Prior knowledge:
Elements: H1 3-8, E1 20-23, E2 29-31, H2 38-47, E3 55-60, H3 64-75, E4 79-84, E5 89-94, H4 105-108, H5 116-125, E6 127-131, H6 144-152, E7 156-160, E8 163-167, E9 176-178, H7 184-194, E10 200-204, H8 210-221, E11 225-227, E12 233-237, E13 245-248, H9 253-265, E14 269-273, H10 283-290, E15 292-296, E16 300-305, E17 314-316, H11 328-335, E18 341-345, H12 356-361, E19 365-369, E20 372-376, E21 385-387, H13 391-403, E22 407-411, H14 414-419, H15 423-429, E23 433-436
Parallel strand pairs: 2-14, 3-13, 9-10, 17-18, 21-22
Antiparallel strand pairs: 1-22, 1-23, 3-5, 4-5, 6-8, 7-8, 10-12, 11-12, 14-16, 15-16, 18-20, 19-20
Helix pairs in contact: 2-3, 2-8, 5-7, 6-7, 7-8, 9-11, 9-13, 11-13
Amino acid sequence: MNASLSTAAPWWRPNTGHRLIIRGGRPLAGSYPVSGAKNAVLPLMVSALLTPHLVTLRNVPANLDVAVLAALLQRLGCDMHWSTGEQSLAVTIAADRVQPQRIDPELVTRMRASVLLLGALLARCGEAALPLPGGDAIGLRGIDFHIAGLRAMGAAIELADGTIRATARGGLRGADILLPQPSVGATENLLLAAVVAAGTTTIRNAAREPEIADLATCLIAMGARIEGLGTHVLSIEGDALLGGAVHTVLPDRIEFGTLACAAALTDGELSLPNGRIELLGTAAPSFEAAGVALQETEKGVIARRAATGLRGIDITTQPYPGFATDLQAPAMALLTMATGASAVTETIFEQRFRHVDELRKMGADIVVRGRTARVRGVERLCGASVTCTDVRAAAALVLAGLGATGETALDGLDHLDRGYDGMASKLALCGSDIERQ
């Protein structure tokens, strides 16, 4: 195990084996607790850089991205204290001695969310220098919106030799910022910077994803003044002296939607504690139209296949509350075995159909034209050797393997580990024949 990860996140243990073997055809049954949201916890961890006081996060998912970010923060001078509960982690972060010059380039290039360090370090320290962030190869995902917004707030930013160098010697100042598109990352970066900047910042055309509201809720608990949560216009009164906070990470709507699809695809039934239908946005009625039955309970949601079976539908990914791009690949896996034809249109990322070729190896009938994939349901998928190409594609291939006849072998498991907390072991407890080798 990487020494920096073992020090910063002692709970992280690389799963044994680099290949996942799934012998499909078994209906899932049992309880699969929904973890804390990966897309929420990463900016929440970065928010601890804004204060010298303690920030405690509960319901933290034990995935690789969290371990990598923990190592990045520790390298910057943060102390990390972890505790383990029944089903999740908690971490207390002390950032009273931040040293921005100690950024770890190798760790930055391993994850896209590291770009959020830019706004937080500028706000706290007045300087930041980091390589262009890494992450999934699903499209350009440029950081132009981040940089333009921070420049409007008074930052001087240069890009040279693959490195972002930014300074705000006189401190950041409030600005009226219009995002060309409702970018989640840019909204989070500017929000982190604005709570400490002098004066008022308005972010227009802001993204509305629940993870942004979760970040804002934590920042408010720390003493920030933010209005407009859940809307396209965020107003932030800066100059806040932020204190500590204790915050519980919201449930992962992407994991929830993915496991609901798994229950329907295998014709099983899963109890999904902590699952919240309202977090799915328009994906919830889309799933139900496709034959995924969702029943709310006191503890979460029960997911199963509808009595009418799986049916083809049309999906177009959109910013929240539209159909999440992160659910597009798992939904496509579901639709490969639905009755009739489906059209899946991807509007967010231009390279997010890389899982299509892998699904075809398993017998899926999919034709891609531009940004639309035409899916004709087949009677069955057949096991094959496939490779995970990004976090959400990995989950889609797991779903396909669970529903297929025969044995499926998945390579590229770092992608699965990045986004999901022990998915294979949890599925095994729900009756799947799945193991790492």
